[in-house]
Design goal:
With about 100 residues, the protein is mainly alpha-helical. The chain has 3 helices and 4 strands; from the N terminus they run αββββαα. The chain binds zinc ion (ZN). The site of zinc ion has 8 residues, from loops.
């Protein structure tokens, strides 16, 4: 495989990881809107119908790339909860983290 093709594929997979993570679905038309990390705390508008998209108020599961981007670009303090499925105290803390986000 030529190197150029390989690099393009890698680029696409990064983009799709990114777009899965910070997507808000419009409540009125169902359009998926990609929200830049620097705007997550603000009210936005749906690209399709211009309905209001509320500011992010729930924990977001992130991969490393999205984490880096949010921490670098967010204009509000970011609370990071490191947790694991197998960790009982982590799972007990999760609802509290969610409450804080709201
Ligand atoms: Zn909409």
């Amino acid at each position: 495989m030529p190197l150029g093709a390989h690099a393009r594929n890698a680029h696409y997979s990064l983009l799709s990881v990114w777009s899965e993570n910070v997507i808000r679905v419009c409540q009125s038309c169902g359009q998926k809107n990609r929200i830049p990390p620097s705007r997550l705390h603000q009210v936005g508008y749906c690209g399709a119908c211009k309905a209001e998209l509320s500011a992010n108020n729930a924990p977001i599961d992130v991969d490393q790339q999205t984490f880096d981007q949010i921490v670098k670009e967010a204009q509000v303090p970011v609370l990071v909860d490191f947790w694991a499925d197998w960790c009982a105290p982590c799972r007990m803390a999760a609802p509290e983290v969610k409450k804080l986000a709201e």
